[in-house]
Amino acid sequence: MKILNLYAGIGGNRKLWGNDHEITAVEYDAGIASIYKNLYPNDTVIVADAHRYLLDHFKEFDFIWSSPPCPTHSKLVTLNYSINDLLSYPDMSLYQEVIILQHFFKGKYCIENVMGYYKPLIHPQESGRHYFWANFKIPNIKVDGLPIKGETGLNIKEREVYAGYNDFEYKEFKGDKTKIFKNMVSPEIGLAIFESALNIYNHNKVEQVGLFALPSPPVNKQD
Known about the structure:
Blueprint: E1 2-6, E2 22-27, H1 30-39, E3 44-47, H2 50-57, E4 63-66, H3 76-84, H4 93-104, E5 108-114, E6 125-127, E7 130-134, H5 156-163, H6 177-182, H7 187-212
Parallel strand pairs: 1-2, 1-4, 2-3, 4-5
Antiparallel strand pairs: 5-7, 6-7
C-alpha cells in the first residue's frame, strides 16, 4: 500500500505501522524531519508544505493520513482570549483538505485534529480527544492521548517514555521538544486507524481479483 503521511512530525501516528508499505512523510520543519528520517530510514521524507503537497500528489497514494496544525481550532483559543485578549482566525486549510479528499480521492483517508472550541463546519467522527474526518469508520479508540502532568503542563519525559522514544537523542534538533510531543498522535491511535484502512484496502483487492478472475474450466465426467 502506498501511504502519504502529512504533517508527519517525528511519526508518532506511524510508529506501529511496520515497514511493509511504501510510506512518504511530509514535514515542514527540517529539524523534525531529520528526526523522523533517523527513526524511519525506510520512509521517503520530504521537507515541504504538506498542504500544497497534498493537492499536487494525492492521486499517487492508496491511504492518506493528515494531521493539520491544531492551535487555531483548539479549546485553548477561548482560554488564551480570556487571559490575553489575543485572537486569530481558525486555519481553514483543515476544511480545504477535507473537501478535496471527500470529492476527489479514490483511496482511504483520515484527517485528524483536536476537538475544537466551535461546532465543526463539516461533521467529523469522534474518538478519544480527537476529531476524525475519514471515508471509513474510525474504531472506538480507548487510548485518550499521551500523558499530561496536572496543571503544570506537558510532562515531556513521560510522553517520551509512553511513545517509546526515551532512548532517542535529539542531537540534530535545536528547537523545543515540547513542540514535538505536544503535537504527536498516540501510536496506538495511529495503529488502530491504519489497520482499519489496511483491512478495507486488502478486502477491495481480493474483490477486484475475484471480479476479473477467469472461470474454472469445465470438469469432464467419465461414465
